[in-house]
Structure formats: C-alpha cells, structure tokens
Amino acid sequence: MPVQPINLIRREEFIEAAIASIHKYGFHDATVNRIARDLGVSAGNIHYYFGGKDGLFEAAMHRLLSRIRHESAQQLAIAGSPEDRLRAIVSANLSPQVFQPAFCRTWLHFVAESIHRPALQRLQRVNGMRIRSNIRSVLRKIVTSAQANALTEELVALLDGLWAHRGQVDEGLEPAEALAFAMSFLNHRLAVHRLPSSPAG
Amino acid sequence: MPVQPINLIRREEFIEAAIASIHKYGFHDATVNRIARDLGVSAGNIHYYFGGKDGLFEAAMHRLLSRIRHESAQQLAIAGSPEDRLRAIVSANLSPQVFQPAFCRTWLHFVAESIHRPALQRLQRVNGMRIRSNIRSVLRKIVTSAQANALTEELVALLDGLWAHRGQVDEGLEPAEALAFAMSFLNHRLAVHRLPSSPAG
Amino acid sequence: MPVQPINLIRREEFIEAAIASIHKYGFHDATVNRIARDLGVSAGNIHYYFGGKDGLFEAAMHRLLSRIRHESAQQLAIAGSPEDRLRAIVSANLSPQVFQPAFCRTWLHFVAESIHRPALQRLQRVNGMRIRSNIRSVLRKIVTSAQANALTEELVALLDGLWAHRGQVDEGLEPAEALAFAMSFLNHRLAVHRLPSSPAG
Amino acid sequence: MPVQPINLIRREEFIEAAIASIHKYGFHDATVNRIARDLGVSAGNIHYYFGGKDGLFEAAMHRLLSRIRHESAQQLAIAGSPEDRLRAIVSANLSPQVFQPAFCRTWLHFVAESIHRPALQRLQRVNGMRIRSNIRSVLRKIVTSAQANALTEELVALLDGLWAHRGQVDEGLEPAEALAFAMSFLNHRLAVHRLPSSPAG
DNA sequence: TATGAATGAGGATTCATTCAT
DNA sequence: AATGAATGAATCCTCATTCAT
Fold it and tell me: How far apart are CA C101 and CA C88, in angstroms?
C-alpha cells in the first residue's frame, strides 16, 4: 500500500474531482465510482493513491482548508495596520477564489460529517483554532482582551454563517455581497470601540 | 400506506428518535433500522407512518424548524419595543430548548443535505425567508431600510454560524455563551446607529 | 380460522376484486393490500375469508374456470347435432362473457403460476381434462377416434392460443374476431373429413 | 456500470442461468440471489452486467426469441416451395432445440409478465409481428389474401397454445407429438383450399 | 366481523473494497 | 500504475401475515 506522494499531480486531480463530485452529486452520492468516472479513470486508483474513500475525503478537506489558509497568508502579506490585517483575513475568507459554491458546499458537508469522523474533526478543530488565534491576536492590538475574545467569536460565526449560506443556494450570495456584509459588520462593530464615550452614557 | 397523521403521538416518537439517531450516529449512519431499533420497534413502521426514510427526515426537519418558530413566537409575545423584539428573536434562536447539540447537529446535517434534496430545501428556504422577514420588519422601525437589510444578513449569518459551531463540538458553546456573543453583537451593532453622528465623520 | 362459506357474497366480492387487481396491476403487483383497498376494506379480511393470499387466488382461479364451464353448459343445453355441440363449446370459450381481457389476462397469469403451485395446477389440470373429454366425446361421433384425438389437441391449442393473445394486448382481438377464426378453423378442418376421398388422392 | 456487451460470454452465462432459474423456481421466485448462487457468483454481478434484474430478464427474453428466430432462419434456408416454407416455420417453432420445457415455461412467464412491463411487451410485440408477417407472406402464395389472414391467426394461435401447453406440464407434450398435431392441422387445413370446389357446395 | 398497527423475512440494489492481470 | 471484474455487507423497502381491539 504505497501511500507516499509518488505522483502528487495525480493526487491533486483526484482531490479536485472529489470536491467537484460533492458539489455536483452531494456528499452521500459522491461515490468512488462516480468520482473516478468523472475523471476518466478506474475506481481502484482511489485506493491506490489514498488508501480508500476516507483517505481521499480527508485529503480533500485538508486541501480545502489549505486554500483558505494560503489565501489569508497572501492577503496578510500586503496588509499594514491591525485593522487592515483584520480586513485581509475577512477578505481572504470571502474572496472569489475560495468563497465559491463548490468549496462552500463541500465545506458544509465536511463540517457536518466531521462530527462523527475523528480524522475530519481534527482538521476542522485545528483550522478553527488557527483562524481564531489569528483574528484574536490582531484584535488585541485594537481593543481590550475581553472585547477581542467576544469579537473573535462574533466574526468567526459571521464568516461560518456566510459560508453556510453560500453552500446552500446555487445562486444567491456572491463574494462581493458577502464581503460587503462582513465589512459592514467589521466597520460598524469596530466603530463602537473607537468612540470616546459609551453611547448608552 | 397512510401518509396522513393518523397517530400523531406515534409519529412524534419516530421524529424524536430520528433526531436522536442523527445526533448519535450521524446523518449517514442514522439508518431506518437503527432508528427503529432504538425505539424498540420494527423498521417497517417507518415506512408505514412516513412512507419511507425521506418522509421521516422531512418530518424531522419540519419539526425542528417548528420548534424554533414556536420558541420565537413565545418570546415575541412578551416583547415590547422593537429592540426588545429583536432580542427576543435572537434569544429564541439560542434558548436552551432549541440551541442544544442534538438540534444544532441535526440542523447542520439537514442544511448540508438540503442542497440535493428538494423537499428539505423547500423547508429550509421557507424558514430562511420567514426569519429574515421577521428580523427585517423589526429593524426597519429602528434603522433605515438599507441598514436593515445589511443588518438582517449579518444577524442571520451570526446565528447560523453559532448553530454550526454548536453542532460541531460536543461540548463548547453553551446557550448562555452564545447568547452573550449575539447580544454583544446586537448591542454594539445597534449602538452605532443610535449615535447622533457617524464616527467616521 | 373459519373457512366455511359463512358469507358467500363477501367472498364473491373479494374474488372479483382479485381478478380486477390482477388485470389492473399484474399478478406480481396484485398485493393483498391493493385488492382490499380497491374494495374499501382492510387487508386482514382476506385472511379471515380465504386463510391467506393463496387461498384467495385459488378461489379466483376456481371461479374463473367455473364461469367457462357454466358458459359451456348453457350453450350445450341448446345444441343439437354433434357439430352444433362442437360449435357450442368453442363459442362458449370465446363468448364476450368469458373472453374478456380481465379474464384472459388473469387466466394467463394463473396458467404461468400454476406450474409451481400445486393447488392451482390441480385446478388447471382438471379443467384441461374436462374440456378435452368434452370435445373428444363429441368428435368421436363425427370422425375416427384417432382423428378425434388429434383434432381435440388442435382445437384446445387454438383456444388456448386465442386466450393467450387476448390476455396480452389491451385492445386487439375482440370476441367476434376470435370466434370467426375459431369457426373458420372448425369448418375447414371438419370439411376435410367429410369429403368422400382424400384430397391427396 | 457497463451496459455494453464487454464480456459477452459472461452475459450469456447469466442469461442461461436466468432461464434455468425461471424454469426451476418460477418467475416470482427466480430472485437475483438464486440466479447468482446457482451460477456460483455474487448477486452484485447481475447489476454490474445488466444494470438490474429487469435488464437481465429483458436480455433473457430477447435471447429466447432470438433462438426461435434463428431456428426459423435455418429451417427456411433449406425450404423450397411455399408449403415447405410453411412447414419449416412450424417445424422450427416446435423443434427439440426450442420447444423444450425450460423455454416454453419461461416464455409463458414472459408473455404473462409482458403485459405490465413495457420493455418485455415491446419485444413480444415485435416478435409477434415478425412471425405473423413471415407466415402471411408465404400463405399469400398459396391462398387468397383473406384466407391467408385468417389462416395466419389460426396457425399462430395453435403454436402459442402448444407452447403454453408444453410450458405447463413437466412431461406431456413432446416435440414430436406437437409437431404431429401442427402438421395435421396444416395438411388438413391447406387441403381444403387445394380442392377444386368447396365441400359445402 | 372488521380494523389497522405491527412484524419480520426477504426482495433488489448500492457501494467501498479487493485483486488478478 | 492502472484496470475492471468480482465480492459481500449493508441499505431501503415491500409484503403477507398476525393479533389486540
């Protein structure tokens, strides 16, 4: 059972085919036969390259989260102020490259399935910790630690909610719209903390 | 094959068992046999009462959404001002009665599955329209129509994100915490609009 | 298990419903539930009146063959010469009362199923012996014994073939047409034997 | 799911096993499991090769009718005069190769089942048209067109009746006997038309 | 008599997986 | 490296049958 990445290009093709199949047929109906057929190869290859269906799906989820992480890294590289960095993270999670139906839908399925699948759950948990850590560390430069914690959860929930929405409907929430909503949230939400006095005062 | 609700009590038992099974085994492994066995009856009954597995799951999703709707109605009944009504809606969606792991997890599965299942999608779509309509109508009494639209999407996304989070981890986000995050969002977010002048000048 | 003909009228209703269901749904899909539902009663009654599905179907086949036998008896009662008697038998088997799609189709199913069902096979065998005996006894008054044997088989095969045809297509072979074919056969076939010398002579 | 005849030999094995199973267990009890088990393979193969049970049965019926057609073609190839051709057709339909219990019984089941199964009905209909057309075209060279039509129906009904008989009883009507009856019919029936004047005067 | 809820065996079918080639 | 035939467990579902009411 050679699991070594002998042929990385081949693996990538399978992973993309898997994501495409989940998007096309749904998680339950994305069978190894269909994934392989859409790729024009035999189903046996999936076991050769990934050890089995679970292996392929884990690789696919890993790939999905890597793409988001990569997008964030790119946007953060050109960001300056803490607020710019925050906007970079949000922007990265909603960029047309990652915030596309196929990705959001597959992510939604992975999140739902991850509950009863340790391997997927681990990936999801690590990713959640990473993004929260990123956001929190930036926020602490702007607001108090307590406020940073709350705001982090709000922001993560908002992003997850937008992804869930995008994954549900074929046409509805375009990246630009989603970004507008998120930026609206961010601007208004941060504005309160920048004020000299509490509004309820 | 009576599809009409002949024996409503029996149907409720099956629906609860279905939700419990999805929570316990996951959507994919919540088979008719397991659901029936956990209830101590024969699998054939599911087809007798619901016409099939899909029928049961549709009824279960319907039940789930009804619970949330019912909770909202109750909380709204005692709410006075528009802001109170808004908090009532948020509070209802995060109350211990509905914001429980079994419900959030099942909801997460339903949302993911609904994409390729017209019957579930319809339920989800109607529910989404209803909650957005509720929130928007209240918000329009506080802020401008444009602001109401944006705020509605932000709030819905936040709630969906919190539900997704609660559905993913067995122990993590308690109803009280989630409510605190949502209220924090609501208070700070509305505060901006209550200010005499925009902070950005 | 009261199998006694307590309520003969009720039994007749079930039998007619069974034949109608076989005609309507086909033998395989004529389930006890469907038969009972079409009659507006509960499926349990079939077991009460007939001991089970097999009992009902045996009764139905018995009824079917009785109808043909009854029709033959009626036609034979008014027949005079041997040739008239022969025509009476043929006419009875193709009369509009018995040579109807529902009967022919059900008969076809019974014949096919009878092979592996002793109870049905016995009925079919007895019926076959009876009709052959009837035809042969009449023929012996017209032709030689050897010729009578051959002609009997030819005539029975012809009638069975016409029934099979009528059972297969919804609209095609009307009783009048079938009767014309059978009479054509009979007249021409008997004509040969009435000739003073063999045609090949 | 390859529907193309990739492995024709394997397909033939399944078809023969299907016919044997229908002969052995009856149509209703010829389950995919039994057919596969009798062949010493797994039931899944039937779906792999034929797409399902229906596909196998359609292929089996097709095979059955092909055999008869093939037999007719062979016999017709060596036939000379119109009457010889007629005898060839009759002889082909009653030859020991095709007029065997397994075939006649399976045919009987197919005919009965074809009523509610479009795919089987189409095969049966096409076959009926072909054989009628063959017989009629030969008969038109011997008798008038009107007589040819009637005689065709008589002959087809006779053959169908003989097949039905052969399919019903395990041992009863041997090919030689059936052929004798059919030839008796043919010779006597044609004799009338060869006479200078009708016997009825 | 009659009902209809409940059963459980048995059906076709799907699918990940294996393995000889 | 790749195929695709073959497997067998597991799934949903159907149905005749039973039985308390």
Answer: 21
CA atom of D49 to C1′ atom of F3, Å: 17
Instruction: Please give chain B's pLDDT, 201 residues, in tens.
Output: 444 445 788 999 999 999 999 999 999 999 999 999 999 999 999 999 999 999 999 999 999 999 999 999 999 999 889 999 999 999 999 999 999 999 999 999 999 999 999 999 999 999 999 999 999 999 999 999 999 999 999 999 999 999 999 999 888 899 999 999 999 999 988 887 765 544 443
Tokens at B42, concatenated: 């024969």
Choose the mutation target among B108, B142, B147 for the interface with A, i.e. most A CBs under 10 Å: B108
Half-sphere exposure of A187 (CA within 13 A, CB side): 12
Sequence-ordered list of residues with C-beta below 8 angstroms from that of A19, at least 6 positions apart, any chain: A60, A63, A64, A102, A103, A106
Alpha-carbon gap, residue D24 to C2, rounded angstroms: 35
Half-sphere exposure of B188 (CA within 13 A, CB side): 23
Contact assessment for residue C61 and residue C55, using Cβ atoms and an 8 Å cutoff: no
C-alpha dihedral sign at B123, B126, B132, B138: negative
Residue D31 CA and nucleotide F14 C1' are separated, in Å, by 15
**Residues making up chain D, counted from first to last:** 201
pLDDT in tens, A104-151: 999 999 999 999 999 999 999 999 999 999 999 999 999 999 999 999
Handedness of CA C38, C44, C50, C51 (dihedral sign): positive
CATH for C8-194, among 1.10.860.10, 1.10.357.10, 1.20.1440.130, 3.40.50.720? 1.10.357.10
Name the nearest CA neighbour of D176 among D102, D91, D64, D74.
D91
Q: Say how many CA atoms lie within 13 Å of D113 toward its Cβ.
A: 20
The Cα C177–Cα C161 span in angstroms is 14
Residue type, B170: D
Q: Distance (Å, rounded) from C-alpha A191 to C-alpha B159? A: 22
Annotated domain spans of chain B: 8-194
Question: Between the CA of residue B28 and those of A117, B22, B23, B57, B170, what are the distances in Å?
Answer: 11, 8, 11, 12, 18
pLDDT tens digits along D17-62: 999 999 999 999 999 999 999 999 999 999 999 999 999 999 999 9
Q: What pLDDT, on the 0 to 100 scale, is given for residue C196?
A: 52
Residue with CA nearest to F1's C1' atom:
A45
Tell me what the mean pLDDT of segment A53-67 comes to: 96
SS (H, E, C) chain B: CCCCCCCHHHHHHHHHHHHHHHHHHCCCCCCHHHHHHHHCCCCHHHHHHHCCHHHHHHHHHHHHHHHHHHHHHHHHHCCCCHHHHHHHHHHHHCCCCCCCHHHHHHHHHHHHHHCCCHHHHHHHHHHHHHHHHHHHHHHCCCCCHHHHHHHHHHHHHHHHHHHHHHHHCCCCCCHHHHHHHHHHHHHHHHHHHHCCCCCCC
Nearest to D38 by CA among D21, D26, D63, D50: D21
Name the residue among D108, D162, D193 with its Cβ closest to that of C157: D162
State the count of interchain CB pairs (< 8 A) between A and B.
130
